[in-house]
Amino acid sequence: MNDCETRMDAAAYVLGALEDPESYREHLATCAACREEVAELERVVDLLPATVPRAAASGELRARIMASVRSEAELLRAAGERADQPPTRTRGIFARPLWLPAGATALAAGLAAALILALGGGSSSPVRVRAAVLSPSEGGAHAVLIERGRRGELVVRGMRQAPAGDVFQVWLKRGASAQPQPTDALFGVTHGGDASVAVPGDLRGVTEILVTHEPVGGSRHPTSAPLLHVVA
Amino acid sequence: MPRLRSPARSGAAEHGRLADEELIQLVARNDADAFEVLLERHADAAFSLAYRMCGRHAIAEDVTQEAFLAIWRGGARYDPTRASVRTWVLGIVHHRAVDALRRHDVHARRRAGEEGLEETLEAHERTDVQALDNEAARELRDALEGLPREQRRVIELAYFGGFTHVEIASMLEEPIGTIKGRMRLGLRKLRDHLEGWEALPA
Q: Considering the domain B11-105, what is its CATH architecture?
């Protein structure tokens, strides 16, 4: 039996209906009775999707999703293979055919070339490339984080221009519930929406990298929703 | 050497025999064939949930696409101790659908939170309104339908409509405590049903 005075919140929490779920999560960390109640009720909520009328995802939707996935997989593979080779071979990169799936755009090819250039930088540190998650407003854009040892570089393609008077600003999160910390990495994009920006400092302890629109000069706290984020 | 389509196809066939949990590990290594198998297995359930919540075909497709691309891009991490892959995927869809509902106008949300939405499904989109994944889900739907109307309503407005308990209280002109209490009573009844079925011999 749950005698906790906030026990009434467990059901609203598992239904996603609390206004401030974060402070309830803090309560859960200290209250075994509420944790138990949440776990029991979550099993019910987990099954709610199975009660909805079944509809079929269209073939067009599946094809759209797979087109993005296959072009990104190919980009990541191209970047990864390049990273495994000695950096002295960078001059030959355009001679090497880059296989792209049907439907991959010139934009994607441009990003692959940029990735390969960025990776030819002559370091023996292990390199990892991660795709960024973009906000729905940035449909058609691509972004990746290139991690070379403890240094990071963001490469974006096809982003929309920042509103007049605004720049793009890079933010770092250290820890899942931490507030984003500002960096002095402020940037703009070309007419095509392209940019490449070094992530300031050391990536150790960084859990997430975000980009927002901010007034020229940057902000101390984000004033707009993230345009993209990468889990480091 | 250029890659050909055909080896990728046979790769997908190989992957078809793997469990979801194994596919997720391959997806983390950017294996598009593994991802395609996961998409085939879960796309209908994902779209069904998004459609039930958003009530509009285009928004439901956007939500489904965002959710699967987030999974592909590693923006969400799967924890096998917490739930099945299906439950995890649907949790991401739910989260994205709530975001979409909160971006759109409140009337669409109110409609989505109400019962009887299946009438708006077009015939070609309806597979079988009665078809559910398994016995437990069918029983749960019956139990949900058997709840007192006011308990069912707050659960549906919250979960499918994306409303907070404060919004529901103001919409129904009831105290916040009453709304939370109905949510709790309703969910506990559903939980008791579940426990009852699980106690039955297989």
A: Orthogonal Bundle (1.10)
| CA distances for A89 relative to A10, A79, A98, A105, B44, angstroms | 59, 14, 15, 26, 46
Closest by Cβ to A136, choosing from B62, B126, B164: B62
- Using one digit for the tens of pLDDT, what is the confidence trace for A126-179? 667 788 888 888 877 888 888 877 888 888 888 899 998 899 999 999 987 789
Evaluate the CA torsion angle A193, A194, A200, A205 in order and state its sign. Answer: positive
Q: Amino acid identity, residue A128?
A: R
| H or E segment and range at residue B8 | helix B5-15
Kindly list the residues from chain A whose CB atom is less than 8 angstroms away from the CB atom of residue B160. 48, 52
Tokens of A79: 């970047």
Distance from CA of A84 to the nearest CA of B (A): 16
Question: Are A205 and A174 in contact, with CB atoms under 8 Å apart?
Answer: yes
Check A57 against B64: CB less than 8 A apart.
yes
Residues contacting A28, CB < 8 A, separation 6+? A34, A35, A38
Chain A's closest residue to B145, CA to CA, is A51
Q: Does residue B174 sit at the A interface (CB-CB below 8 Å)?
A: no
Give CA–CA dist A126/A124, Å, rounded.
Answer: 6
Task: Quickly count helices (H) and strands (E) in chain A.
Answer: 5, 9
Note the pLDDT tens digit of each residue in A64-101. 999 888 888 877 776 665 555 444 333 333 333 334 34
Q: Which of A49, A59, A50, A55 is nearest to B125 (CA)?
A: A55
Question: Where do you find CATH 1.10.10.10 in chain B?
Answer: 132-202
What ipTM is given for this predicted complex? 0.81
Q: A68 is written with which tokens?
A: 């993005």
* Dihedral sign computed on CA atoms, order B133, B134, B138, B143: negative
Query: Whole-angstrom Cα distance, residue B55 to residue B109?
Result: 8
Judge contact between A69 and B69, C-beta under 8 A.
yes
Between CA A156 and CA A232 the distance in angstroms is 16
How much is the pTM?
A: 0.66
Q: Do A12 and B180 touch (CB under 8 A)?
A: yes
> Are the CB atoms for A22 and B198 separated by under 8 Å?
no
Taking each helix axis as running N to C, give the angle between helix A32-47 and helix B135-146, from 0 to 180 degrees, rounded to the nearest 10.
100
CATH number assigned to the domain with residue range B132-202, chosen from the 4 options 1.10.10.10, 3.65.10.10, 3.40.50.2300, 3.40.605.10: 1.10.10.10
**Nearest 5 degrees, angle CA A29-CA A208-CA B71?**
85
